[in-house]
Amino acid sequence: MANFSDLYKSKLTTPDQAVSVVKSGDWVDYNSFTGRPIVLDRALAKRKDELSDVKVRSTCTMYGVPEIVKVDPTSQHFVYNNWHFGGLDRKLADQGSCWYAPVLYREVIKYYEKHVDVDVAFLQVCPMDKNGLFNLGIQASHARAIINKAKIVILEVNQNMPRALGGYNEVVHISEVDYVVEGDNPPLPQIPAAVPTDADRKIAQYVLEEIEDGSCIQLGIGAMPNVVGKLLAESDLKDLGAHTEMLVDAYVDMYESGVLTGRKKKIDQHKIVYTFAMGTQRLYDFIDDNPICAIYPVNYTNNTRIIAQNDKVMSINNAVEIDLFGQVNSETSGIRQISGTGGQLDFITGAYESQGGKSFICLTSNYKDKSGKAISRIRPFLGNGTVVTAPRTSVEYVITEYGKAIMKAKSTWERAEALIGIAHPDSREELIKAAEDMGIWRRSNKL
Fold first, then answer.
1. Is the pLDDT of residue 1 over 70?
2. Known catalytic residue at 245
């Protein structure tokens, strides 16, 4: 039997020695989400004055501001790029310290195969097992693609990383690794569910009306999808399944209440399928070494043809705003990037192609601006610079606290009528006037 322990020791080094391989002009990939390196990032930041134009790429910054950004906030030495923005990333972008890279999430692995250079990869992983394998933790996503493309692979071991069973492409062997460092073993970031509003709860109730026994659930990020999960856990529905990109605490609620069994799934039966997880320690403990959970790379979880193989896929996602044509913005505030395209369009498409499937875009009817003025999230048209996350041709259900509207198979005037009917009552007359001016309102329209 191979002595993987000796191979491990031969590759074990200090963070400072490991990052010495990085050269000016290199592309360095930090792994995604909770797999972002900590001690390697700190060691690389110490080399600021001897390096220039080092481009670093990650996905959704966790564990606080990266050290390379702290020491170089104006990106003179390190240019920090991101496939998806969280709350911290948008703040860093506002100060010119983080740059967004648009991505259709199901395609990101192919980006690495066709378009992306990786000189050095830093990945936070689980400790090596007796077979010489490091589990990549709760962010399979595109981690394997990073490793496959990298010229040099450096692992940072975290004893607290949950061991996420697959699926496939959830491990890397010691023979494929150039260097190993043993990290600070930080606990994983805790992401409690946002506190839902009364409007969130009302929207969730409308969604619940559309879900049947045997449905396969995908929940997006945010308070409202989490409320749907909680309500599902408390419902009398039977044999729900799970196929999602992001695993959150609500799935634990559904599983422990007995409503989520996966018995009716056509593929990955009895398995909770996901590509990354973010939540509380309760979720991380649930995932750790649990064969019920199956982590896959994102080109499996978000592949529309794979999604559609399960019946009754229910895709439940938030949005920032929607216009009267049915175009959905889920990622920007004007030209300011606040989130990312992610996999919303992947699941909207996959759910619609699923037998009996449905996709839901959920948003409150309005919000308050800084002055306290109510602003409608249903707009005549998206403003200049606003990004379209889901085109009007893809959107099926739109839900606010005032009801449900179906976009599929509707003409422009029917779409306008349906959306105005679920807008906040205070905004409806203004929206009708705008629809008339835009030529998408018939005089016979009724709300």
1. no
2. yes
